[in-house]
Design a protein that fits this description.
The chain has 265 residues and is mostly helical. The chain has one domain (20-260). It has eight helices and two strands; from the N terminus they run ββαααααααα. It has a two-stranded antiparallel ribbon. Helix 2 packs across helix 3 (97-112).
């Protein structure tokens, strides 16, 4: 495990934990007026790797797939079967498959950078990217509902059938907030907070490891062994969280689309 997380200790040797300022790193370089900091560079690396993986996995496809092609196909089939067709059916599942596939693998690759040596921060740990993906999911949900039922989508969303009319004064504001306000917010915050907390925990454990080993020394190094073990365990856990968050984000996007194209709309 790369201890890219540097020891944060003052001149007096006192321990200093991770700071939220790590998510607002200084500019590394500028190109044409565009500023590139560490997180932007990490995102670009993840994007290049993502494109490269799918290009190499699909450029020379054969009937009997080779090992790398099989891995890529398994990933694509996972999204198609378990997220797309399982929730939306065959027709709508294939219709929205490009979007669901893009969201799943983009979130996955950008999440995993938080556990990769020399990168060590998730590309989704700053709000801009999770918010962008949530807006895309939200706009797709609105589009799917209007496309399915132009006249009744908003009506059925805000005034659910079967509710006594006098209750709409209570139900309609709740439906509006839960359906058209909270969905993009919760999508954004669920992904963002998991990546932020995961990064801070890893920084804490590995900074503490460096502190106990190199700043204090002596028998305090035993605590460094413990913090390193916790850091390694949480790295594995962070990888699991990265995969789960990609799955949950794509799954909820499919759920919202399914609700939009349901027959009652």
């Amino acid at each position: 495990m790369n201890l890219l997380v540097q020891a944060s200790s003052s001149d007096g040797g006192s321990f200093q934990g991770p700071s939220i300022n790590e998510f607002f790193p200084p500019t590394l370089f500028t190109i044409g007026g565009l500023e590139f900091n560490r997180i932007v560079v990490v995102r670009l690396i993840a994007l290049v790797v993502l494109i490269l993986v799918f290009w190499l996995g699909t450029r020379k496809m054969t009937i009997v797939p080779r090992r790398f092609q099989s891995v890529v196909e398994m990933g694509l089939d996972f999204v198609r079967v378990n997220i797309g067709e399982d929730l939306l059916g065959r027709k709508d599942g294939r219709r929205f498959l490009p979007l669901l596939t893009t969201i799943f693998f983009m979130v996955l690759f950008f999440n995993l950078t938080g556990a990769i040596p020399f990168l060590n921060i998730a590309g989704t740990s700053v709000i801009a990217l999770p918010l962008l993906l949530a807006v895309v999911a939200y706009v797709t949900f609105i589009y799917a509902g209007i496309k399915k039922s132009p006249k009744n989508f908003f009506k059925n969303s805000l005034f659910p059938p079967g509710v006594p009319p006098f209750l709409y004064i209570i139900v309609t504001p709740i439906e509006f907030i839960s359906t058209f306000v909270l969905r993009p917010i919760t999508l954004t915050l669920r992904l963002l907070m998991n990546m932020v907390v995961g990064h801070l925990l890893l920084v804490l454990f590995f900074t503490a490891t460096s502190f106990f080993f190199f700043e204090v020394g002596g028998w305090w190094a035993l605590f460094g062994v413990g913090t390193f073990a916790f850091g390694f365990a949480f790295t594995l856990f962070e990888i699991l969280v990265a995969v789960l968050q990609a799955y949950v984000f794509a799954l909820l996007t499919a759920v919202y689309i399914q609700l939009a194209v349901a027959e009652e709309h």
